[in-house]
Design goal:
By secondary structure, the chain is an all-alpha fold. It has 15 helices and no strands.
C-alpha cells in the first residue's frame, strides 16, 4: 500500500500541472481580461482598478492600434501602465513559468481588485464554505444511508414507492429554488420570520455566551443547510438503495442466510461493508462540490460570503490571481481527498489491494 500511495502522490504533480496549464492558456486568450475591463471602465464609469493607475484625467487622448477591445482613443501610455499593473507587460510564457514557480512555493500573489493576498481571501471565506460543506455532508449521509437501506430491504413496498416519489420530486427541485421557498416561508418573506436571512452569525455574536454563540451559529445555518441537503440527499439515498440491492442477491448473502445468520447479521455484518464502498467513492467529489461550487447559489441567496461566491466573482471580474490560486488549491485538495478515499477502501475491506495498479 505504501508503494501505491507514493505513486499516487507523484501522479498528482503532472495532473495538477496539466490542469493549471490548460486553464492558464484558455483564460489568457479569452476576451474581457482585466486590462480590457479597466479600459472600459475608464472610458465610462470610474473604478478602483482605473484609479490605481491614474489619479487625474487624461487631457490628451491618442489613437492606438492596441489589440485590446475598446482601446481606440485611449492613451497608449495609460494602456502600458495597465499592462504593467496586471503583469501583461511580459510575454505569456514568462508569465506562465513565473506562475508555476510561485505556486510551487504556495505564493499565489494578490487579488487585482481586493487589495488582499489570495491566501488571505481564501482563509477569510473558508469558515462559511467549511460550515456549509461539513454540515450538509454530515446530515446528508446521516439521513440518506439509513433511508436507502430501509428502501432496499423493503423494495417494492408502499414505503419504497412513496419515499421514492418524495426523493425524486426533491431531486427535481433545484437547490436555489428550494432556498427561495424556505426564505418565503420561514425567513420573513411572506409568512413566518423564524430564521435570519443573511450572514453566518448575528451582529452581537462576540457579546454572546459560548452556548448562545452555538445556538446563533446553528440558527443562521438552518435554512442554508436544509436547502443544500436536498440534491445530495436525493442522489445519495438512491445510490445507497441500489448498492444494497446489488449485494442482497449475491451468492455470499444467500450462503449466510442458509447458515442461519440473523437478518441484521447478514445486513450489517456482510452486506454493509461491500455496499458502502460505492458510497464512499463519492465522498471526495461530494465534499469538493459542496465546499467550492455547489454552495455558490446558496451563498448568494443567503448572503453568505464564502468560497463559492469568491470564485464566481473572480471569474466575472477576471481576477486571475484568485482564479488560478483557488483552482490550484481546490484541485490539490480534491486529488488528496481521492487518495484518502482509496486508502479508506482498504481499511473497510482488506481484500482490496491497489499494489498492482
Amino acid at each position: 500500500m505504501q508503494q501505491y500511495i507514493i505513486k499516487r502522490l507523484l501522479l498528482i504533480i503532472p495532473t495538477l500541472l496539466g490542469i493549471m496549464t490548460l486553464n492558464f492558456f484558455i483564460v489568457q486568450v479569452a476576451p474581457g481580461g482585466p486590462v480590457e475591463q479597466a479600459i472600459a471602465k475608464y472610458q465610462g464609469i470610474n473604478s478602483d482598478a482605473a484609479s490605481r493607475v491614474t489619479t487625474s484625467a487624461h487631457s490628451e487622448i491618442k489613437q492606438t492600434n492596441s489589440h485590446y477591445r475598446g482601446a481606440q482613443g485611449v492613451d497608449p501610455e495609460y494602456i502600458l501602465r495597465l499592462e504593467k499593473l496586471y503583469g501583461f507587460d511580459k510575454p505569456i510564457l514568462e508569465r506562465y513559468f513565473s506562475m508555476l514557480w510561485r505556486y510551487m512555493q504556495f505564493d499565489f500573489g494578490e487579488s487585482f481588485y481586493r487589495d488582499k493576498s489570495v491566501i488571505d481571501l481564501i482563509y477569510e471565506k473558508m469558515p462559511v464554505s467549511i460550515s456549509l460543506g461539513i454540515w450538509t455532508t454530515l446530515f446528508a449521509y446521516i439521513i440518506s444511508i439509513p433511508l436507502g437501506i430501509k428502501k432496499a430491504t423493503s423494495h417494492g413496498s408502499r414505503f419504497d414507492v412513496w419515499s421514492s416519489t418524495v426523493v425524486t420530486i426533491g431531486y427535481a427541485i433545484p437547490a436555489f429554488i428550494f432556498a427561495i421557498i424556505l426564505i418565503v416561508l420561514f425567513a420573513g418573506g411572506s409568512y413566518y420570520s423564524w430564521f435570519p436571512l443573511r450572514g453566518l452569525t448575528s451582529d452581537n455574536f462576540e457579546s454572546l455566551t459560548f452556548f448562545e454563540q452555538i445556538k446563533d451559529y446553528l440558527w443562521h445555518l438552518a435554512l442554508p443547510i436544509t436547502a443544500s441537503i436536498l440534491a445530495s440527499f436525493a442522489t445519495l439515498t438512491m445510490l445507497t438503495k441500489n448498492s444494497f440491492l446489488d449485494e442482497i442477491n449475491k451468492q455470499y448473502v444467500i450462503t449466510a442466510r442458509a447458515k442461519g445468520c440473523s437478518k441484521n447479521r447478514v445486513l450489517y455484518g456482510h452486506i454493509f461493508r461491500n455496499a458502502m464502498l460505492l458510497i464512499l467513492a463519492g465522498l471526495p467529489a461530494a465534499l469538493i462540490g459542496i465546499f467550492f461550487t455547489g454552495s455558490m447559489l446558496i451563498e448568494v441567496i443567503f448572503s453568505l460570503d464564502g468560497l463559492g461566491l469568491l470564485s464566481f466573482e473572480s471569474v466575472i471580474n477576471r481576477d486571475y490571481p484568485v482564479i488560478f490560486g483557488s483552482l490550484y488549491i481546490f484541485t490539490l485538495v480534491g486529488l488528496l481527498l481521492k487518495l484518502i478515499s482509496d486508502v479508506t477502501y482498504t481499511v473497510i475491506d482488506p481484500r482490496i489491494n491497489f499494489e498492482g495498479q
